[in-house]
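haha ok so turns out i had the wrong file open the whole time. this is the CORRECT one, sorry everyone. sequence first:
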Amino acid sequence: MKTDHDSFAPTVSRGDSVATPDENAAFTARVRKEFEAFVSHPSFPCLGAKAAFNAGSYVLSVFGELGSAPSANELSAALTDFVHSDLFRGSEYATFVAVFRRPLTLSEVGFERLLWLQLQRLHALDEKRFAWDASVASDPADPRFSFSFAGRALYVVGMHQGSSRLARRFPWPALIFNPHAQFEKLRDGGKWTRMQQTIRSRDVALQGTANPMLSDFGEASEARQYSGRAVEKDWQPPFVAAPPAKGAGRCPFGH
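then structure:
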């Protein structure tokens, strides 16, 4: 059954100003509660996100401003810990949820710009230590592109309150990082096609229309899907991966 945004998305107050550790912890707990309510809503279409929530196999952290250098530094450390964790290695639905306090009001184009700025800044920190995951392409125009961090391919889902897709509409800007390997495991196990079809049907039931950006890996660059905006045919993300370099400064166990 289709539901409107008012009944689907959490209702929260705006303009939080958190200074003390106790207030910071309270704000993070509030964001976590809102995210769990968002994902567990009966109309939320993504079965993978629901599975991660039900299994407790996700990590949620709150950062300052989306796209900023300080957020990139903090997110880099947290994301590195996630990629090296037992959860990442052992869970079928491991997920990292990065929620940002600011900015609250963003157009789809504005959010898209900050999303790619944040990924570019993450990559600038990451490429000094790790090579790009060799199982995916680093060129965002390549149909086999996927973002890589700490030597592992990650599929990125952007969410914000201005999204035209109800399944992407959340009170704070957020970036969801999912290991690409989990999709390959689902494909190898014969589960992916049925799960994908169910998710798309549920999204149509929620939104009334199919997401025009969806495509299978290898058909079109998944970069077109990250922000949730229906991008133009000739669109290219403002992202450039560093050229491959000899191993100086790279982690020899990146792969």
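Confidence is low (pLDDT under 50) at residues 1-18, 248-255.
again sry for the mixup
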